[in-house]
Protein backbone atom coordinates (compact mmCIF):
# COMPACT_ATOMS: atom_id res chain seq x y z
CA UNK A 1 0.00 0.00 0.00
CA UNK A 2 1.54 3.30 -1.03
CA UNK A 3 2.41 5.62 1.77
CA UNK A 4 1.48 3.09 4.39
CA UNK A 5 2.37 4.09 7.89
CA UNK A 6 5.55 2.57 9.16
CA UNK A 7 5.85 3.44 12.75
CA UNK A 8 9.29 2.82 14.03
CA UNK A 9 9.99 1.19 17.30
CA UNK A 10 9.24 3.58 20.09
CA UNK A 11 11.96 6.15 20.17
CA UNK A 12 13.93 6.83 23.21
CA UNK A 13 12.52 10.18 24.16
CA UNK A 14 15.44 10.68 26.52
CA UNK A 15 17.83 10.57 23.55
CA UNK A 16 19.97 13.63 23.10
CA UNK A 17 17.91 16.19 21.21
CA UNK A 18 19.36 17.49 17.95
CA UNK A 19 17.10 20.51 17.89
CA UNK A 20 16.17 22.26 21.09
CA UNK A 21 14.33 25.49 21.46
CA UNK A 22 14.06 27.04 24.88
CA UNK A 23 11.41 29.62 25.69
CA UNK A 24 11.48 30.74 22.10
CA UNK A 25 9.47 33.88 21.46
CA UNK A 26 9.00 35.99 18.41
CA UNK A 27 7.16 39.27 18.41
CA UNK A 28 6.62 41.23 15.23
CA UNK A 29 6.45 44.91 15.99
CA UNK A 30 4.29 46.97 13.73
CA UNK A 31 3.46 50.62 14.12
CA UNK A 32 0.17 50.10 15.92
CA UNK A 33 0.66 46.86 17.81
CA UNK A 34 2.87 43.89 18.54
CA UNK A 35 2.00 40.53 17.07
CA UNK A 36 3.18 37.54 19.05
CA UNK A 37 3.96 34.74 16.64
CA UNK A 38 5.79 32.51 19.10
CA UNK A 39 5.10 32.51 22.80
CA UNK A 40 7.63 30.53 24.82
CA UNK A 41 8.06 27.49 22.61
CA UNK A 42 10.04 24.56 24.01
CA UNK A 43 10.72 21.92 21.43
CA UNK A 44 12.97 18.88 21.65
CA UNK A 45 13.64 16.92 18.51
CA UNK A 46 15.63 13.74 19.03
CA UNK A 47 18.34 12.42 16.74
CA UNK A 48 16.95 10.50 13.76
CA UNK A 49 13.39 11.51 14.42
CA UNK A 50 10.77 12.75 12.01
CA UNK A 51 9.04 15.44 13.98
CA UNK A 52 5.86 17.02 12.71
CA UNK A 53 4.62 20.38 13.89
CA UNK A 54 1.01 20.83 12.99
CA UNK A 55 -1.26 23.80 13.35
CA UNK A 56 -3.54 26.07 11.45
CA UNK A 57 -2.18 28.97 9.47
CA UNK A 58 -1.27 31.74 11.84
CA UNK A 59 -0.44 29.33 14.63
CA UNK A 60 3.24 30.23 14.40
CA UNK A 61 4.61 27.13 12.69
CA UNK A 62 6.31 29.10 9.97
CA UNK A 63 7.93 31.47 12.42
CA UNK A 64 9.07 28.50 14.47
CA UNK A 65 10.85 26.72 11.63
CA UNK A 66 12.38 30.00 10.46
CA UNK A 67 13.68 30.65 13.93
CA UNK A 68 15.39 27.26 13.97
CA UNK A 69 17.93 28.32 11.34
CA UNK A 70 17.57 31.95 12.30
CA UNK A 71 16.11 33.14 9.03
CA UNK A 72 14.01 34.99 11.57
CA UNK A 73 15.74 36.24 14.67
CA UNK A 74 13.86 35.22 17.79
CA UNK A 75 12.86 38.03 20.11
CA UNK A 76 13.96 35.95 23.08
CA UNK A 77 14.87 32.39 23.94
CA UNK A 78 17.49 30.16 22.45
CA UNK A 79 17.87 27.65 19.64
CA UNK A 80 20.41 24.84 19.72
CA UNK A 81 20.98 22.68 16.69
CA UNK A 82 23.41 19.78 16.82
CA UNK A 83 25.09 21.11 19.93
CA UNK A 84 25.60 24.65 18.66
CA UNK A 85 23.63 27.45 20.15
CA UNK A 86 22.67 29.34 17.01
CA UNK A 87 21.09 32.25 18.84
CA UNK A 88 24.53 33.04 20.27
CA UNK A 89 25.98 33.23 16.76
CA UNK A 90 23.72 35.96 15.44
CA UNK A 91 25.27 39.38 15.47
CA UNK A 92 23.20 41.97 17.22
CA UNK A 93 22.03 44.66 14.87
CA UNK A 94 22.34 48.21 16.06
CA UNK A 95 19.59 50.78 16.05
CA UNK A 96 16.91 48.91 14.16
CA UNK A 97 19.23 47.48 11.55
CA UNK A 98 18.71 43.83 10.74
CA UNK A 99 20.86 41.38 12.62
CA UNK A 100 23.53 40.30 10.19
CA UNK A 101 24.49 36.65 10.31
CA UNK A 102 28.01 35.98 11.48
CA UNK A 103 30.25 33.66 9.43
CA UNK A 104 29.76 31.02 12.12
CA UNK A 105 26.01 31.23 11.76
CA UNK A 106 26.30 30.94 8.00
CA UNK A 107 28.52 27.89 8.43
CA UNK A 108 25.98 26.37 10.80
CA UNK A 109 23.19 27.06 8.34
CA UNK A 110 24.99 25.24 5.58
CA UNK A 111 24.75 22.09 7.66
CA UNK A 112 21.00 22.51 8.12
CA UNK A 113 19.02 21.62 5.03
CA UNK A 114 15.76 23.36 4.26
CA UNK A 115 12.99 22.65 1.79
CA UNK A 116 10.25 25.10 0.97
CA UNK A 117 6.59 24.99 0.05
CA UNK A 118 7.21 26.77 -3.24
CA UNK A 119 10.50 24.98 -3.87
CA UNK A 120 12.46 28.24 -4.33
CA UNK A 121 14.56 26.94 -7.18
CA UNK A 122 16.48 29.36 -9.37
CA UNK A 123 14.86 29.35 -12.79
CA UNK A 124 18.10 30.77 -14.18
CA UNK A 125 19.96 27.55 -13.42
CA UNK A 126 19.55 24.00 -14.55
CA UNK A 127 18.53 21.32 -12.09
CA UNK A 128 22.18 20.43 -11.59
CA UNK A 129 23.10 24.10 -11.24
CA UNK A 130 20.53 24.45 -8.48
CA UNK A 131 21.97 21.54 -6.55
CA UNK A 132 25.47 22.91 -7.09
CA UNK A 133 24.61 26.29 -5.56
CA UNK A 134 25.08 25.27 -1.91
CA UNK A 135 28.24 23.44 -2.94
CA UNK A 136 29.55 26.67 -4.45
CA UNK A 137 28.87 28.39 -1.15
CA UNK A 138 30.79 25.62 0.58
CA UNK A 139 33.69 26.28 -1.77
CA UNK A 140 33.95 22.94 -3.57
CA UNK A 141 35.81 22.73 -6.85
CA UNK A 142 33.91 22.49 -10.11
CA UNK A 143 34.71 18.81 -10.47
CA UNK A 144 33.63 17.96 -6.91
CA UNK A 145 30.46 19.99 -7.30
CA UNK A 146 29.47 18.24 -10.45
CA UNK A 147 30.12 14.78 -9.00
CA UNK A 148 28.26 15.54 -5.76
CA UNK A 149 25.30 17.13 -7.54
CA UNK A 150 24.82 14.14 -9.81
CA UNK A 151 25.11 11.81 -6.83
CA UNK A 152 22.40 13.76 -4.98
CA UNK A 153 20.12 13.86 -8.01
CA UNK A 154 20.54 10.13 -8.30
CA UNK A 155 19.52 9.79 -4.66
CA UNK A 156 16.23 11.58 -5.30
CA UNK A 157 15.67 9.77 -8.59
CA UNK A 158 16.24 12.66 -10.95
CA UNK A 159 19.64 11.86 -12.45
CA UNK A 160 18.17 12.08 -15.96
CA UNK A 161 16.91 15.65 -15.41
CA UNK A 162 20.28 17.19 -14.51
CA UNK A 163 20.50 19.40 -17.58
CA UNK A 164 16.89 20.59 -17.58
CA UNK A 165 15.64 23.93 -16.27
CA UNK A 166 13.21 23.72 -13.31
CA UNK A 167 10.38 25.27 -15.35
CA UNK A 168 10.09 22.00 -17.24
CA UNK A 169 9.65 19.84 -14.15
CA UNK A 170 6.45 18.84 -12.38
CA UNK A 171 5.80 20.00 -8.81
CA UNK A 172 6.94 16.73 -7.31
CA UNK A 173 10.12 16.75 -9.37
CA UNK A 174 10.82 20.34 -8.32
CA UNK A 175 10.48 19.37 -4.68
CA UNK A 176 12.86 16.45 -5.23
CA UNK A 177 15.39 18.92 -6.61
CA UNK A 178 14.73 21.07 -3.55
CA UNK A 179 15.45 18.06 -1.34
CA UNK A 180 18.62 17.18 -3.24
CA UNK A 181 19.76 20.77 -2.83
CA UNK A 182 18.97 20.72 0.88
CA UNK A 183 21.10 17.60 1.30
CA UNK A 184 24.13 19.09 -0.42
CA UNK A 185 25.76 20.24 2.80
CA UNK A 186 25.42 16.74 4.27
CA UNK A 187 23.13 18.05 6.97
CA UNK A 188 22.15 16.17 10.09
CA UNK A 189 18.95 18.15 10.19
CA UNK A 190 16.42 18.86 7.49
CA UNK A 191 13.78 21.54 7.93
CA UNK A 192 10.69 21.12 5.82
CA UNK A 193 8.47 24.17 5.53
CA UNK A 194 5.13 22.87 4.24
CA UNK A 195 7.11 20.97 1.62
CA UNK A 196 4.13 19.05 0.34
CA UNK A 197 1.43 21.66 0.67
CA UNK A 198 1.63 22.72 -2.97
CA UNK A 199 1.49 19.14 -4.23
CA UNK A 200 -1.37 16.81 -5.08
CA UNK A 201 -2.08 13.84 -2.77
CA UNK A 202 -0.29 11.25 -4.90
CA UNK A 203 2.84 13.40 -5.23
CA UNK A 204 2.63 14.28 -1.56
CA UNK A 205 2.84 10.60 -0.70
CA UNK A 206 5.85 10.01 -2.91
CA UNK A 207 7.70 13.04 -1.56
CA UNK A 208 6.92 11.99 2.01
CA UNK A 209 8.13 8.48 1.24
CA UNK A 210 11.36 9.98 -0.07
CA UNK A 211 11.79 12.02 3.11
CA UNK A 212 11.12 8.93 5.18
CA UNK A 213 13.67 6.90 3.19
CA UNK A 214 16.28 9.62 3.59
CA UNK A 215 15.50 9.84 7.28
CA UNK A 216 16.22 6.16 7.65
CA UNK A 217 19.11 5.78 5.21
CA UNK A 218 21.03 8.86 6.30
CA UNK A 219 19.87 8.98 9.90
CA UNK A 220 18.60 12.42 9.05
CA UNK A 221 16.58 14.29 11.65
CA UNK A 222 13.59 15.92 9.98
CA UNK A 223 11.56 18.76 11.43
CA UNK A 224 8.55 19.34 9.30
CA UNK A 225 5.74 21.78 9.65
CA UNK A 226 2.42 21.21 8.01
CA UNK A 227 -1.25 21.96 8.31
CA UNK A 228 -2.20 18.49 7.10
CA UNK A 229 -2.77 15.80 9.67
CA UNK A 230 -2.21 13.17 6.97
CA UNK A 231 1.41 14.22 6.67
CA UNK A 232 2.03 13.73 10.37
CA UNK A 233 0.04 10.52 10.30
CA UNK A 234 1.97 8.95 7.49
CA UNK A 235 5.57 9.73 8.40
CA UNK A 236 6.10 11.27 11.79
CA UNK A 237 7.54 9.60 14.88
CA UNK A 238 6.67 12.58 17.03
CA UNK A 239 4.35 15.49 16.73
CA UNK A 240 3.57 18.82 18.28
CA UNK A 241 0.36 20.76 18.01
CA UNK A 242 0.64 24.53 17.83
CA UNK A 243 -2.04 27.06 18.57
CA UNK A 244 -1.64 30.82 18.97
CA UNK A 245 2.14 30.63 19.08
CA UNK A 246 2.28 27.96 21.75
CA UNK A 247 2.93 24.25 21.66
CA UNK A 248 -0.24 22.78 23.08
CA UNK A 249 0.79 19.12 22.95
CA UNK A 250 3.92 17.31 21.97
CA UNK A 251 5.55 13.91 22.21
CA UNK A 252 6.20 10.71 20.36
CA UNK A 253 3.15 9.09 18.80
CA UNK A 254 2.94 6.37 21.50
CA UNK A 255 3.34 9.03 24.19
CA UNK A 256 0.54 11.04 22.68
CA UNK A 257 -1.65 7.96 22.52
CA UNK A 258 -0.97 7.32 26.17
CA UNK A 259 -2.04 10.83 27.09
CA UNK A 260 -5.70 10.85 28.06
CA UNK A 261 -7.65 13.43 26.13
CA UNK A 262 -4.84 14.12 23.68
CA UNK A 263 -6.17 16.05 20.72
CA UNK A 264 -3.38 14.85 18.51
CA UNK A 265 -3.97 11.20 19.37
CA UNK A 266 -7.62 11.65 18.56
CA UNK A 267 -6.78 13.27 15.24
CA UNK A 268 -4.08 10.78 14.38
CA UNK A 269 -6.24 7.79 15.22
CA UNK A 270 -9.78 8.99 14.68
CA UNK A 271 -12.56 6.71 15.85
CA UNK A 272 -16.02 6.49 14.43
CA UNK A 273 -19.06 4.32 14.87
CA UNK A 274 -22.47 5.04 16.27
CA UNK A 275 -23.22 3.56 19.62
CA UNK A 276 -26.08 1.08 19.24
CA UNK A 277 -28.42 2.20 21.98
CA UNK A 278 -29.01 2.55 25.71
CA UNK A 279 -28.74 -1.21 26.26
CA UNK A 280 -25.21 -1.29 24.99
CA UNK A 281 -21.82 -0.19 26.28
CA UNK A 282 -19.26 1.39 24.01
CA UNK A 283 -15.62 1.31 25.01
CA UNK A 284 -12.62 3.02 23.43
CA UNK A 285 -9.43 1.04 23.77
CA UNK A 286 -6.00 2.54 23.16
CA UNK A 287 -3.19 0.17 22.19
CA UNK A 288 0.32 1.36 22.90
CA UNK A 289 2.11 -1.47 21.18
CA UNK A 290 2.48 -3.82 24.14
CA UNK A 291 -0.66 -5.79 23.47
CA UNK A 292 -1.98 -7.09 20.18
CA UNK A 293 -5.50 -5.96 19.41
CA UNK A 294 -7.09 -8.96 17.79
CA UNK A 295 -6.20 -11.61 20.38
CA UNK A 296 -7.43 -9.27 23.11
CA UNK A 297 -10.80 -8.84 21.49
CA UNK A 298 -11.27 -12.52 20.69
CA UNK A 299 -10.07 -13.54 24.15
CA UNK A 300 -12.52 -11.13 25.69
CA UNK A 301 -15.28 -12.61 23.59
CA UNK A 302 -14.36 -16.20 24.50
CA UNK A 303 -13.68 -15.64 28.18
CA UNK A 304 -16.96 -13.86 28.90
CA UNK A 305 -19.04 -15.33 26.10
CA UNK A 306 -19.82 -11.88 24.75
CA UNK A 307 -20.77 -10.72 21.28
CA UNK A 308 -18.20 -7.98 20.77
CA UNK A 309 -18.89 -5.58 17.92
CA UNK A 310 -16.10 -3.48 16.58
CA UNK A 311 -17.55 -0.07 15.78
CA UNK A 312 -14.46 1.53 14.45
CA UNK A 313 -10.73 1.31 14.62
CA UNK A 314 -7.64 3.19 13.56
CA UNK A 315 -4.75 0.82 14.01
CA UNK A 316 -1.30 0.49 12.71
CA UNK A 317 0.98 -2.49 12.92
CA UNK A 318 4.75 -2.27 12.86
CA UNK A 319 7.13 -5.08 13.74
CA UNK A 320 4.25 -7.10 15.18
CA UNK A 321 3.24 -4.29 17.50
CA UNK A 322 -0.11 -2.66 17.25
CA UNK A 323 -0.61 0.98 17.96
CA UNK A 324 -3.86 2.84 17.69
CA UNK A 325 -7.35 3.04 18.97
CA UNK A 326 -10.42 0.85 18.67
CA UNK A 327 -14.04 1.37 19.64
CA UNK A 328 -15.90 -1.76 20.58
CA UNK A 329 -19.42 -2.33 21.77
CA UNK A 330 -20.58 -4.80 24.36
CA UNK A 331 -24.18 -5.88 24.89
CA UNK A 332 -25.83 -4.63 28.06
CA UNK A 333 -25.39 -1.61 30.25
CA UNK A 334 -22.12 -0.54 31.84
CA UNK A 335 -23.15 -2.17 35.10
CA UNK A 336 -23.39 -5.52 33.30
CA UNK A 337 -19.93 -5.13 31.81
CA UNK A 338 -17.82 -4.14 34.78
CA UNK A 339 -16.01 -7.47 34.80
CA UNK A 340 -15.07 -7.65 31.10
CA UNK A 341 -13.93 -4.00 31.18
CA UNK A 342 -11.86 -4.80 34.22
CA UNK A 343 -10.30 -7.62 32.21
CA UNK A 344 -9.33 -5.18 29.48
CA UNK A 345 -7.77 -2.86 32.04
CA UNK A 346 -5.79 -5.76 33.40
CA UNK A 347 -4.25 -6.24 29.96
CA UNK A 348 -2.56 -2.88 30.43
CA UNK A 349 -4.83 -1.15 27.97
CA UNK A 350 -6.13 2.34 28.28
CA UNK A 351 -9.90 2.13 28.49
CA UNK A 352 -12.44 4.84 28.10
CA UNK A 353 -16.12 4.03 28.51
CA UNK A 354 -18.41 6.20 26.45
CA UNK A 355 -21.41 7.67 28.24
CA UNK A 356 -24.28 5.35 27.41
CA UNK A 357 -27.07 7.87 27.67
CA UNK A 358 -25.80 9.81 24.69
CA UNK A 359 -26.09 7.71 21.58
CA UNK A 360 -24.72 10.56 19.51
CA UNK A 361 -21.48 10.58 21.49
CA UNK A 362 -19.55 9.34 18.48
CA UNK A 363 -17.50 12.14 17.00
CA UNK A 364 -18.55 13.50 13.66
CA UNK A 365 -15.34 12.32 12.04
CA UNK A 366 -16.68 8.78 11.72
CA UNK A 367 -16.77 8.62 7.92
CA UNK A 368 -13.42 10.28 7.55
CA UNK A 369 -11.76 7.76 9.81
CA UNK A 370 -8.54 6.41 8.35
CA UNK A 371 -7.74 8.73 5.50
CA UNK A 372 -4.22 7.60 4.74
CA UNK A 373 -2.72 4.19 4.65
CA UNK A 374 -4.22 3.35 7.99
CA UNK A 375 -5.98 0.06 7.51
CA UNK A 376 -9.22 -0.09 9.40
CA UNK A 377 -9.52 -3.44 11.11
CA UNK A 378 -13.25 -3.06 10.96
CA UNK A 379 -15.57 -0.22 10.29
CA UNK A 380 -18.90 1.27 11.03
CA UNK A 381 -20.14 -0.69 8.05
CA UNK A 382 -20.28 -3.79 10.19
CA UNK A 383 -23.70 -3.59 11.75
CA UNK A 384 -24.26 -4.75 15.27
CA UNK A 385 -26.90 -7.47 15.36
CA UNK A 386 -29.26 -5.53 17.59
CA UNK A 387 -29.14 -2.52 15.35
CA UNK A 388 -30.00 -4.63 12.35
CA UNK A 389 -33.30 -5.73 13.85
CA UNK B 1 25.64 68.43 -51.12
CA UNK B 2 26.71 65.47 -53.14
CA UNK B 3 26.94 61.95 -51.77
CA UNK B 4 30.72 62.21 -51.93
CA UNK B 5 30.55 65.20 -49.60
CA UNK B 6 28.03 63.60 -47.29
CA UNK B 7 29.56 60.16 -47.02
CA UNK B 8 32.68 60.98 -44.91
CA UNK B 9 30.59 63.23 -42.64
CA UNK B 10 28.06 60.48 -42.07
CA UNK B 11 30.75 57.90 -41.43
CA UNK B 12 32.46 60.13 -38.90
CA UNK B 13 29.08 60.91 -37.29
CA UNK B 14 28.28 57.23 -36.94
CA UNK B 15 31.69 56.45 -35.44
CA UNK B 16 31.37 59.29 -32.94
CA UNK B 17 27.83 58.36 -31.95
CA UNK B 18 28.75 54.70 -31.50
CA UNK B 19 31.77 55.74 -29.47
CA UNK B 20 29.73 57.95 -27.17
CA UNK B 21 26.82 55.52 -26.79
CA UNK B 22 28.95 52.45 -26.18
CA UNK B 23 31.24 54.01 -23.62
CA UNK B 24 28.47 55.83 -21.80
CA UNK B 25 26.37 52.64 -21.75
CA UNK B 26 29.27 50.75 -20.27
CA UNK B 27 29.84 53.33 -17.53
CA UNK B 28 26.12 53.59 -16.87
CA UNK B 29 26.03 49.88 -16.14
CA UNK B 30 29.10 50.14 -13.93
CA UNK B 31 27.45 52.93 -11.97
CA UNK B 32 23.76 52.07 -12.22
CA UNK B 33 23.88 48.37 -11.45
CA UNK B 34 25.36 48.66 -7.94
CA UNK B 35 23.26 51.74 -7.26
CA UNK B 36 20.05 49.93 -8.22
CA UNK B 37 20.97 46.85 -6.18
CA UNK B 38 21.82 49.01 -3.17
CA UNK B 39 18.47 50.77 -3.47
CA UNK B 40 16.78 47.41 -2.99
CA UNK B 41 19.13 46.09 -0.30
CA UNK B 42 19.00 49.16 1.90
CA UNK B 43 15.25 49.54 1.61
CA UNK B 44 12.81 48.54 4.34
CA UNK B 45 12.86 44.74 4.55
CA UNK B 46 16.07 44.54 2.51
CA UNK B 47 19.11 42.55 3.56
CA UNK B 48 21.13 45.68 4.39
CA UNK B 49 18.20 47.72 5.65
CA UNK B 50 19.48 51.21 6.31
CA UNK B 51 17.00 54.02 6.12
CA UNK B 52 19.44 57.00 6.01
CA UNK B 53 21.56 55.54 3.22
CA UNK B 54 18.47 54.49 1.32
CA UNK B 55 17.03 57.99 1.56
CA UNK B 56 20.26 59.57 0.30
CA UNK B 57 20.52 57.14 -2.62
CA UNK B 58 16.88 57.61 -3.56
CA UNK B 59 17.29 61.39 -3.44
CA UNK B 60 20.37 61.28 -5.69
CA UNK B 61 18.52 59.10 -8.19
CA UNK B 62 15.42 61.27 -8.15
CA UNK B 63 17.35 64.48 -8.65
CA UNK B 64 19.33 62.92 -11.48
CA UNK B 65 16.13 61.68 -13.10
CA UNK B 66 14.24 64.96 -12.85
CA UNK B 67 16.91 67.25 -14.35
CA UNK B 68 16.32 67.84 -18.06
CA UNK B 69 19.30 66.44 -19.91
CA UNK B 70 20.02 69.66 -21.74
CA UNK B 71 20.38 71.45 -18.38
CA UNK B 72 22.63 68.71 -17.07
CA UNK B 73 24.72 68.99 -20.23
CA UNK B 74 25.44 72.66 -19.67
CA UNK B 75 25.66 72.52 -15.89
CA UNK B 76 28.26 69.79 -16.01
CA UNK B 77 30.67 71.64 -18.33
CA UNK B 78 33.09 72.66 -15.52
CA UNK B 79 33.04 69.16 -14.08
CA UNK B 80 33.67 67.64 -17.52
CA UNK B 81 36.57 70.00 -18.10
CA UNK B 82 38.03 68.97 -14.77
CA UNK B 83 37.67 65.30 -15.60
CA UNK B 84 38.66 65.10 -19.29
CA UNK B 85 40.42 68.43 -19.78
CA UNK B 86 37.96 69.64 -22.41
CA UNK B 87 34.22 70.14 -22.70
CA UNK B 88 34.01 69.64 -26.45
CA UNK B 89 34.08 66.45 -28.50
CA UNK B 90 32.73 62.92 -28.08
CA UNK B 91 34.96 61.96 -25.13
CA UNK B 92 33.88 65.01 -23.16
CA UNK B 93 30.24 64.18 -23.87
CA UNK B 94 30.53 60.79 -22.20
CA UNK B 95 30.59 62.53 -18.80
CA UNK B 96 27.14 64.15 -18.93
CA UNK B 97 25.74 61.14 -20.74
CA UNK B 98 26.82 58.84 -17.92
CA UNK B 99 25.62 61.24 -15.23
CA UNK B 100 22.26 61.41 -16.98
CA UNK B 101 21.90 57.68 -17.59
CA UNK B 102 23.15 56.23 -14.28
CA UNK B 103 20.05 57.22 -12.25
CA UNK B 104 17.81 56.12 -15.09
CA UNK B 105 19.42 52.69 -15.36
CA UNK B 106 19.58 52.39 -11.55
CA UNK B 107 15.79 52.74 -11.34
CA UNK B 108 15.35 50.05 -13.97
CA UNK B 109 17.78 47.78 -12.09
CA UNK B 110 15.88 48.44 -8.87
CA UNK B 111 12.59 47.42 -10.47
CA UNK B 112 14.11 44.30 -12.02
CA UNK B 113 15.74 43.15 -8.78
CA UNK B 114 12.61 43.87 -6.73
CA UNK B 115 10.69 41.42 -8.88
CA UNK B 116 12.86 38.48 -7.82
CA UNK B 117 10.93 36.18 -5.50
CA UNK B 118 11.95 36.70 -1.88
CA UNK B 119 11.81 32.94 -1.38
CA UNK B 120 14.98 32.60 -3.46
CA UNK B 121 16.78 35.04 -1.19
CA UNK B 122 15.62 33.00 1.78
CA UNK B 123 16.77 29.77 0.13
CA UNK B 124 20.28 31.13 -0.44
CA UNK B 125 20.42 32.43 3.13
CA UNK B 126 19.29 29.05 4.44
CA UNK B 127 22.21 27.48 2.56
CA UNK B 128 24.57 29.74 4.42
CA UNK B 129 25.05 32.33 1.70
CA UNK B 130 25.86 35.91 2.66
CA UNK B 131 24.73 39.11 0.99
CA UNK B 132 27.26 38.96 -1.89
CA UNK B 133 26.19 35.41 -2.65
CA UNK B 134 22.54 36.38 -2.61
CA UNK B 135 23.20 39.25 -5.01
CA UNK B 136 25.56 37.47 -7.39
CA UNK B 137 24.00 34.02 -7.45
CA UNK B 138 20.31 34.73 -7.00
CA UNK B 139 19.20 38.34 -7.50
CA UNK B 140 21.20 39.29 -10.59
CA UNK B 141 20.93 35.99 -12.52
CA UNK B 142 17.20 35.80 -11.81
CA UNK B 143 16.69 39.42 -12.87
CA UNK B 144 18.88 39.09 -15.97
CA UNK B 145 16.09 39.18 -18.60
CA UNK B 146 14.65 42.37 -17.09
CA UNK B 147 18.14 43.82 -16.71
CA UNK B 148 18.88 43.26 -20.40
CA UNK B 149 15.53 44.84 -21.24
CA UNK B 150 16.47 47.82 -19.07
CA UNK B 151 19.88 48.08 -20.71
CA UNK B 152 18.26 48.15 -24.16
CA UNK B 153 16.06 51.05 -23.11
CA UNK B 154 19.05 52.82 -21.60
CA UNK B 155 21.13 52.47 -24.77
CA UNK B 156 18.29 53.93 -26.80
CA UNK B 157 17.83 56.81 -24.39
CA UNK B 158 21.60 57.42 -24.56
CA UNK B 159 21.39 57.53 -28.34
CA UNK B 160 18.81 60.28 -28.04
CA UNK B 161 20.87 62.12 -25.43
CA UNK B 162 24.00 61.83 -27.59
CA UNK B 163 22.18 63.54 -30.46
CA UNK B 164 21.30 66.32 -28.05
CA UNK B 165 24.91 66.46 -26.94
CA UNK B 166 25.78 67.14 -30.55
CA UNK B 167 24.06 70.51 -30.23
CA UNK B 168 26.62 71.70 -27.70
CA UNK B 169 29.65 70.56 -29.64
CA UNK B 170 29.67 66.89 -28.87
CA UNK B 171 30.06 65.51 -32.35
CA UNK B 172 28.26 62.50 -33.69
CA UNK B 173 25.13 62.22 -35.80
CA UNK B 174 23.26 64.83 -33.78
CA UNK B 175 25.98 67.34 -34.30
CA UNK B 176 26.16 66.96 -38.08
CA UNK B 177 22.38 66.94 -38.35
CA UNK B 178 22.31 70.33 -36.62
CA UNK B 179 25.31 71.90 -38.36
CA UNK B 180 24.66 70.69 -41.89
CA UNK B 181 21.03 69.64 -41.99
CA UNK B 182 19.49 72.40 -39.89
CA UNK B 183 21.78 75.39 -40.11
CA UNK B 184 22.63 74.93 -43.83
CA UNK B 185 19.17 73.79 -44.83
CA UNK B 186 20.43 70.50 -46.30
CA UNK B 187 17.14 68.67 -45.96
CA UNK B 188 18.35 65.53 -47.69
CA UNK B 189 21.31 65.29 -45.34
CA UNK B 190 19.08 65.87 -42.36
CA UNK B 191 16.75 63.09 -43.45
CA UNK B 192 19.71 60.80 -44.01
CA UNK B 193 21.06 61.27 -40.51
CA UNK B 194 17.58 60.73 -39.08
CA UNK B 195 17.29 57.53 -41.11
CA UNK B 196 20.64 56.31 -39.79
CA UNK B 197 19.50 57.03 -36.23
CA UNK B 198 16.25 55.14 -36.78
CA UNK B 199 18.15 52.15 -38.13
CA UNK B 200 20.54 52.28 -35.18
CA UNK B 201 17.74 52.39 -32.59
CA UNK B 202 15.84 49.61 -34.35
CA UNK B 203 18.87 47.36 -34.44
CA UNK B 204 19.55 47.96 -30.72
CA UNK B 205 15.93 47.24 -29.84
CA UNK B 206 15.82 44.05 -31.92
CA UNK B 207 19.09 42.84 -30.46
CA UNK B 208 17.91 43.52 -26.93
CA UNK B 209 14.56 41.82 -27.51
CA UNK B 210 16.33 38.84 -29.00
CA UNK B 211 18.57 38.41 -25.98
CA UNK B 212 15.64 38.82 -23.59
CA UNK B 213 13.67 36.19 -25.50
CA UNK B 214 16.62 33.84 -25.41
CA UNK B 215 17.01 34.30 -21.65
CA UNK B 216 13.30 34.01 -20.96
CA UNK B 217 13.14 30.67 -22.72
CA UNK B 218 14.52 28.92 -19.63
CA UNK B 219 11.55 30.19 -17.61
CA UNK B 220 9.01 28.54 -19.84
CA UNK B 221 7.87 24.97 -19.53
CA UNK B 222 7.96 24.32 -23.26
CA UNK B 223 10.61 25.74 -25.57
TrEMBL record, chain B:
CDD domains: TM_PBP2
InterPro entries: AA_ABC_Transporter_Permease (IPR051322), MetI-like (IPR000515), MetI-like_sf (IPR035906)
Gene Ontology terms: cellular component: plasma membrane
Biological process (GO), any one: D-methionine transmembrane transport
Places the protein is found: Cell membrane
UniProt KW keywords: Cell membrane, Membrane, Transmembrane, Transmembrane helix, Transport
Top-level taxon of the source organism: Bacteria
Gene3D superfamilies cross-referenced by the UniProt entry: MetI-like
PROSITE patterns: ABC_TM1
Ranges annotated as spanning the membrane: 20-41, 53-77, 83-106, 147-169, 189-208
All residue ranges annotated as the ABC transmembrane type-1 domain in the record: 14-208
Main location (coarse class): membrane
Recorded topology in the membrane: Multi-pass membrane protein
Pfam families documented for this protein: BPD_transp_1
UniProt family annotation: Belongs to the binding-protein-dependent transport system permease family. CysTW subfamily.
Name recorded for this polypeptide: ABC transporter permease
Amino acid sequence: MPGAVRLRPVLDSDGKPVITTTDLSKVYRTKDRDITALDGVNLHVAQGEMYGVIGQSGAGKSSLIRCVNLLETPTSGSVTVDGRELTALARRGSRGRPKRPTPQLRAARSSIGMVFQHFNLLSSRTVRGNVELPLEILGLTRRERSRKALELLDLVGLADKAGVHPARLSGGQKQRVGIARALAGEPKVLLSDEATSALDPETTRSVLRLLRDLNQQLDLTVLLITHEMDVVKSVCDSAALMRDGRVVESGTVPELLATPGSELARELFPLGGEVGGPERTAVDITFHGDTAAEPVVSRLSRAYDLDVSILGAAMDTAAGKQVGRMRIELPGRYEDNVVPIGYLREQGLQIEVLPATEPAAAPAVSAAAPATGLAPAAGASEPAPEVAK
Amino acid sequence: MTWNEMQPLLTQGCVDTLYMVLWSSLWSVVGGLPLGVLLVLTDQGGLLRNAPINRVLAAVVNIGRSLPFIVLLVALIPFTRLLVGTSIGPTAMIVPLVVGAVPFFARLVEMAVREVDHGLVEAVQAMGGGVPTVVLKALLPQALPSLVGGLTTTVIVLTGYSAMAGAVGGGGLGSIAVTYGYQRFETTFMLLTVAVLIVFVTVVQLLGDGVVRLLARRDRAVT
